């Protein structure tokens, strides 16, 4: 009876786990100017900003995961301060469905070399007065399962990701 109960628990917990398989479809430095809106992109007087952008497609659902990885000091305006414009621009540029997108900001943790993940929760996408798509969002810490997947995605692209040395 004990063995049967253990087998049942094992099957039950195994059924709650879902394997996810990803294909990296893009991994490179992503640049923008100013706040990231379209009209600012050709203005030479605005500061250049950049992060490492990774786009991964989940194999079974086709949903895209977007990782915006901070590259340390002297990288311009942070993604946090431009997120409402750069996520819609990334979706447009790479033909991603924003309604099924999962997006994360990745920051080197200052007291621990481990990466810190923040999920960007998209609640709405509208247009601003200039005609640029702009999203409304909030942030939340990524859960432990997502952290593991994000670690694996970042390891897959290897040395292209800059990890701050402490």
Task: List strands and helices in order, with pairings.
Elements: H1 2-16, E1 22-33, E2 48-58, E3 64-69, H2 83-93, E4 102-108, E5 115-127, E6 133-141, H3 144-157
Parallel strand pairs: 3-4
Antiparallel strand pairs: 1-2, 2-3, 4-5, 5-6
Descriptive notes:
- The protein is α+β, with helices and mostly antiparallel strands and 166 residues long.
- It has one domain.
- Helix content is 24%, strand content 35%.
- It has a six-stranded mixed β-sheet with strand order 1-2-3-4-5-6.
- Strand 3, helix 2 and strand 4 (102-108) form a beta-alpha-beta unit.
- The chain is globular, with a radius of gyration of 19 Å.
- The relative contact order is 0.16.
Domain count: the total is: 1
Strand order of the largest sheet: 1-2-3-4-5-6
Q: Tell me, briefly, the overall form.
A: globular
Provide a count of the helices.
3
List keywords for this structure.
166 residues, alpha+beta, six-stranded mixed beta sheet, 6 strands
Compact overview of the structure:
The protein is α+β, with helices and mostly antiparallel strands.
């Amino acid at each position: 009876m004990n063995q049967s109960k253990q087998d049942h628990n094992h099957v039950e917990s195994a059924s709650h786990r879902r394997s996810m398989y990803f294909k990296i479809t893009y991994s490179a430095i992503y640049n923008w100017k100013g706040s990231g809106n379209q009209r600012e992109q050709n203005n030479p007087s605005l500061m250049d900003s950049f992060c490492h952008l990774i786009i991964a497609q989940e194999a079974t659902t086709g949903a895209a995961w977007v990782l915006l990885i901070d590259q340390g000091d002297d990288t311009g305006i942070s993604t946090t301060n431009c997120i409402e414009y750069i996520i819609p621009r990334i979706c447009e540029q790479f033909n991603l469905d924003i309604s099924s997108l999962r997006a994360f900001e990745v920051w080197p943790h200052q007291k621990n070399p481990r990466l810190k993940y923040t999920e960007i929760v998209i609640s709405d996408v509208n247009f601003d007065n200039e005609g640029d798509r702009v999203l409304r969002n909030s942030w939340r810490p990524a859960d432990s399962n997502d952290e593991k997947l994000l670690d694996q995605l970042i390891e897959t692209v290897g040395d292209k990701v800059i990890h701050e040395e402490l």
